[in-house]
Amino acid sequence: MNGLVSGPMRIVSGIQPTGSLHLGNYxxxxxxxxxxxDEAGEGAECLFFLADxxxxxxxxxxxxxxxxxxxxxxxxxxxxxxxxxxxxxxxxQVPQHAELxxxxxxxxxxxxxxxxxxxKDKAGKNREGASVALFAYPxxxxxxxxxxxxxxxxxxxxxxxxLELARDIAQKFNNDFGTEDEPVxxxxxxxxxxxxxxxxxxxxxxxxxxKSDPSDMSRINLTDDADAIMQKVRxxxxxxxxxxxxxxGLEGRAEARNLVTIYAALSGxxxxxxxxxxxxxxxxxxxxxxxxxxxxxxxxxxxRFTGLLEDRDAxxxxxxxxxxxxxxxxxxxxxxxxxxxxxxxx
Length: 346
Ligand code: TRP
Fold this sequence. Notes:
The protein has helices at 23-39, 62-78, 96-105, 110-114, 117-123, 132-146, 160-177, 226-235, 254-267, 271-278, 283-309, 312-340, and strands spanning 10-15, 45-50, 86-90, 152-154, 189-191. The chain is mainly alpha-helical.
C-alpha cells in the first residue's frame, strides 16, 4: 500500500448518463452498486459517478445529457444509493479527472488503445472520422479510478479490458516515475459480478433490453406503473410449452429463458430454484407471478424516482456535495503525480 488509501477498500465505478432507465440497467450495474455499498465493511469507501465526460466521445445532444444526468442521479438514489454513505457525483464537477487523463496520456501507448475492442466496435470502419475522445476513452477511464487510488472497481464483463488497461497504465507509471517504496498509483482489481443477469427484450429473446428498441413493449421502464408492467409481461413473447424443471430444458427457448432469468434475478434465487418451483407451469400462470414480483420490487423504486425528479435543485445539490468530497480525495494523488513527473505547481 502506498499510504494514499485510508480505508481497507476503496470502491470506485462509473456509469454513462446516456443509457436508459429500464429493468436491464437496474438488474445490471445499479443493483450491484447498491449491494456493494450495503456490504462494504467498516472503513471502506464507495465512490460512484456519472461519466458525463465520457458521453462526448460519441455524438450527443447537450440538453439530453443534462436531463439524463439528473434522471440517472434520481434513479441511483431511488434504487438505494445513499449519498450519505456513498460519494455520488458527476465527473464534470471534478476537474482532476480530465487533468489526470492528460498526465496519463504520456504513459498510455497508442498500441494499447488500438487493441481495445470497444474502440474497434464503436469506431467501426470509420476510424478517421471517430473522435479523439472515443480513442482516448480508456485513458480517461483509467484516470477515473487511479485518481482515487481505487482498490476495487465493479464493472460488467464488457469493461474488463478497460480495467486491465488502467492497471497497465498504473504499472508503467509506477515503474517509470515512482519509487519502489512509494508507488504513485494503487493497482485496481476489477470485480465482475458472477452472474450479471443479461436481461433481454420482452419481444425478442435474442436482443438485449434497450432504450433504442422502437417498441416500448420490449422493456420495463423504471417509470412504468403497475398496470403497464402487468400488461407488458402478459404480452411478452413466450412459447406454448410449460416451464421445464431444469435449466437444460430452456435450451433453444430464448424467451422462456429470459422470463425465468428476470424472475430469478428479482427474487434473488438461482434459476435452478425457480424451475424447481415452477417447472410444469405454463406461461398463463407464470406470467402473472412474474408481473406481481416485478411490481412488488419496482413500485417503491418508481415512486421514489418520480418524487426525486420533482426537485431538480435537490438533485443538483446531491451532485455538488458529492463532487466536493471527491475533489478532496483526488487532491493528494495529483500532487504526487505532478511531483513524480517533475512539474512544480506554485
Ligand atoms: N466505460 C464504462 C461503461 O461504459 C463507464 C465508466 C467510465 C467506468 N469510467 C469508469 C466504469 C470507471 C468503471 C470505472 O460502462
